[in-house]
Design a protein that fits this description.
Strand content of chain A: 5-15%
Number of helices of chain A: 11
Largest sheet of chain A: 7 strands, mixed
Shape of chain A: globular
CATH topology of the largest domain in chain A: Aspartate Aminotransferase, domain 2
Number of domains of chain A: 2
Oligomer: homodimer
Largest interface: A-B, 98 and 97 residues
Modified residues (N6-(pyridoxal phosphate)lysine) (chains A, B): 226
Number of strands of chain A: 15
Structural class of chain A: alpha/beta
EC number (chains A, B): 3.7.1.3
Subunit structure (chains A, B): Homodimer.
Binding site for pyridoxal 5'-phosphate (chains A, B): 100-101, 128-131, 200, 203, 225, 255, 281
Pathway (chains A, B): Cofactor biosynthesis; NAD(+) biosynthesis; quinolinate from L-kynurenine: step 2/3; Amino-acid degradation; L-kynurenine degradation; L-alanine and anthranilate from L-kynurenine: step 1/1
Helix content of chain A: 25-40%
Chain lengths: 415, 415
């Protein structure tokens, strides 16, 4: 067995955790150890309060007047700036709207328009699939565009970046393995070849400090319903570096991105700055739940978050490898914390059945085909003791082979 | 003065209104006569209950499991079929997702792909602008595509439809005047020329019976936050006639429209039928409020709705023209009910100030530049007596010129 701390040591880690008080802000079900915040973040009393007020007061009582009096119209930009602080973006460069998929489409078109003499999009074969699917959609509407994939056209993404590449679309943290890319290094490589970069932050926003401005990133997208805890399907975000704002062209040119949306002009005229990524009317109730979630984030120190995240993932690896040795689990995530996001994946030939058995026992992670068990660690509401208990249950399942009888089903959902 | 009923007659109309009981299902602010349900529909206790349960139970307690146990994943299609009943669409042809603007983009691309030898999009200069803006976005990504506008390139849309036209994008009810187009006639005209038709139902879905299947329509879009009362920014819908399903190609090819979304395949493969219009993860909380609103619609007879709508709009015209004669108001909506949606617009040189004064007195309609006052009538919660009182206040404002002092501001918002 590998070395791992005993329960007394783990209790001491919780007792001195500087983020310990945050857990009380969240609504967590009894009897559940929730290790799937990388798929859907937990609810909070702040999110519920915003939702309640948006529904009963703003919609119910103020009705159409709330577009102005409750600031509905400004929410995409207001919330964008608050997400911006968490991803290293100065104000005015981030907007919350639509979905990650649709925002990728906007950014790919914007990037291709900025590089009219180039036509290649580079992405990853191991990307969360929707990134590739959206790139395929762009290629289908741009006669000369084409797609190169890491793992398909070359083993390493850097080999694919040359003078024909307009844009590199890449995940900051891999959804399956949790591997963290070196943002600054890959961005430099792209820029050195005259290409632009779009970073997909779905699995890093709220999971670790992200420094978009510092790394000289061009564009980024991400979702708000994972580590940011914005609620199921909460709108996504787009970041665009200010230096590109004047030249952005994207085809989803709806009324909300117009320079004068209330003038009802007959022809489109793009609004200023990041606003031109807006398109149609946004789901206000879902945005207001996200606002509540971001109220909590305003109090979070991102360095403390990262420190706890690394301690959580290190501890989980040590506990699993220590307590569950000999049961065929294999670490799929980087062992080096510096190369890891806030999740840990283990493979096992019976990963699906074991995850079903874990969920039936109240330990919620998720399964990714063909053989991955994925566990996400959310420093705001996951305790060290949670991991001790979760691994105890995992070990019990493996030792008694109870996964062979598991039949409680949960279909894998949403990245 | 024109003839109009007295208050006793109006009370009798309310007393015998077959939809009278529906008003109690809605949450309406005290002291307000709400004539802006054509911009943002009123809240309902059913919508609040669904929202509450989605937030506290499904998100808060069940978390990721709700994707299956609460049917989150199936909601776009489930709700789509329920909207379908209100717009004359048999099951399996309607899906709720994204925004009207984005859905127009999908449909324009799908239509152009179905008519590869044609390149012209026809629309209306007087359209709600986002329809034109999205068509411009499509034209920007399709080198050979072009746009013809009624009122710009010819006075009547029918003159613009010839053998070069791939698709006609047209509003069923004009957002500003309330004019209702003859859906069957224009669809026949397009089909006779080999073109496809996209109907924008934003101002007709829930305002009157719509018969998409019966009129042999190809495609339609619409929003759910006006007459359908789904909540601010609730997701929009798409209809596609079943005969086109096998051939639909649209570039917003996200993971939710994939044939096997949970297989995490590396390449896109479009799902079956209407599902292929889905793209990214939908805002579940906003969708659940819409579900509550649709529960009410399940009980509504659309013929009774239309009958009451016509009586409301006829009465409003009679009251305004009768009580406010000589004050410079001019009817902008068709006088013939058969050519009118569920709204009435009047122009006045001081329309903006008069609408401000009305809102300050609790009568909420809206203003559209340069000189239109728009009043929407929602048969589920507007009473005939509401109109009597609203016009009394309007007459008082006009008679005393109190609009000259009006300064309470509301910016026109959202179609």
């Amino acid at each position: 067995m590998s070395a791992f701390p005993d329960f007394a040591a783990i209790e001491a880690m919780d007792a001195t955790d500087p983020l310990r008080s945050m857990r009380a802000r969240f609504v967590l079900p009894r009897g559940v150890i929730y290790l799937d915040g990388n798929s859907l973040g937990a609810a909070s009393t702040a999110a519920f309060a915003e939702l309640q007020s948006a529904a009963t007061e703003e919609w119910g009582q103020e009705l159409i007047r709330s577009w102005n009096t409750a600031g509905w119209f400004d929410m995409p930009l207001d919330l964008g700036d608050r997400v911006g602080r968490l991803i290293g973006a100065a104000a005015g460069q981030t907007v919350v709207c639509d979905t990650t998929s649709i925002n990728i489409y906007k950014l790919l078109h914007a990037a291709l328009a900025l590089r009219p003499d180039r036509s290649v999009i580079v992405s990853e074969g191991g990307s969360f699939p929707t990134d590739i699917y959206m790139a395929e959609g762009v290629v289908a509407t741009q006669a000369d565009a084409s797609l190169r994939l890491e793992g398909v056209d070359a083993p390493d993404i850097e080999e694919l970046i040359d003078g024909d590449v307009a844009v590199v679309l890449v995940n900051h943290v891999n959804y399956k393995t949790g591997e963290l890319r070196d943002m600054a290094k890959l961005t430099r490589k792209a820029h050195a070849n005259g290409a632009l970069v779009i970073w997909d932050l779905c699995h890093s926003a709220g999971a670790l400090p992200v420094g978009l401005d510092g790394a000289n990133v061009d564009f980024a997208v991400g979702c708000t319903y994972k580590y940011l805890n914005g609620g199921p399907g909460a709108p996504a975000f787009i970041y665009a570096a200010e230096r590109h704002h004047g030249d952005i062209r994207q085809p989803l040119s709806g009324w909300w991105g117009h320079a004068r949306p209330f003038a009802f002009e007959q022809r489109y005229a793009a609004g200023e700055g990041i606003r031109r990524f807006l398109c149609g009317t946004q789901p206000i109730l879902s945005l207001r739940a996200l606002k509540g979630a971001l109220d909590i984030w305003d109090e979070v120190d991102m360095a403390a978050l990262r420190e706890k995240s690394l301690r959580l993932t290190d501890l989980f690896i040590a506990l699993v490898e220590g307590k569950c040795a000999g049961h065929g689990l294999k670490l799929e995530s980087p062992r080096d914390g510096a190369r890891r996001g806030s999740q840990v994946s283990f493979s096992h030939p019976n990963a699906y059945e074991i995850m079903q058995a874990l969920i039936a026992r109240g330990v919620i992670g998720d399964f990714r085909a063909p053989s991955t068990m994925r566990f996400g660690f959310t420093p705001l509401y996951t305790s060290y003791a949670d991991l001790w208990h979760a691994v105890d249950i995992l070990e019990d399942i493996l030792r008694h082979d109870t996964w062979r009888e598991a039949h409680f089903g949960i279909r894998a959902a949403v990245t």
